């Protein structure tokens, strides 16, 4: 059971604010009235992807290390793992890989909301 729940607290610490930001950003951009209807889901989805990752990325780095042998093999807590990571690489260690993550999130979530919008529009018409 330990392997299945390892990092669960850190996952919840990341997921709850992440999804609040995700849907909040989408709604703010897509319903702003400033965008043409066809662009609203694309740009709203892109904004949602960025908003859901950037603020919580350091938490994700610690979570990933807690779930891997880096910290889990030592039986470290979230705080102990974060401290050890900081001592090993400074603040920058918590932001390694953010560029590719954000680029992927932009494409992924823009596509997700665009397709969702298309499917919903067709379902309403058809």
Can you put this structure into words, describing what you see?
The chain is an all-alpha fold. Helix content is 76%, strand content 0%. It has helices at 2-5, 8-30, 40-53, 57-67, 69-72, 78-89, 98-125. The longest helix has 28 residues, at 98-125.
Number of helical segments with 4 or more residues: 7
**Secondary-structure element series:** HHHHHHH
Evaluate the radius of gyration.
Answer: 18 Å
Largest sheet, described in full? none
> How much is the average pLDDT?
90
List how many beta strands DSSP finds: 0
* Fraction of residues in helix: over 70%
Q: Return residue spans where pLDDT drops below 50 for at least 5 consecutive residues.
A: none
Tell me the layout of helices and strands.
Elements: H1 2-5, H2 8-30, H3 40-53, H4 57-67, H5 69-72, H6 78-89, H7 98-125
Keywords:
mainly alpha, 126 residues
What's the gist of this structure?
With 126 residues, the protein is mostly helical.
């Amino acid at each position: 059971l330990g392997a299945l729940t390892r990092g669960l607290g850190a996952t919840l610490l990341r997921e709850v604010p992440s999804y609040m930001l995700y849907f909040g950003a989408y709604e703010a951009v897509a319903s702003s009235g400033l965008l043409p209807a066809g662009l609203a889901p694309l740009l709203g989805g892109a904004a949602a992807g960025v908003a859901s990752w950037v603020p919580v990325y350091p938490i994700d780095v610690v979570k990933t290390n807690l779930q891997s042998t880096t910290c889990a093999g030592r039986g470290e807590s979230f705080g102990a793992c974060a401290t050890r990571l900081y001592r090993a690489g400074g603040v920058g260690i918590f932001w390694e890989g953010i560029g590719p993550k954000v680029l992927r999130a932009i494409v992924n979530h823009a596509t997700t909301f665009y397709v969702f919008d298309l499917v919903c529009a067709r379902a309403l018409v058809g």
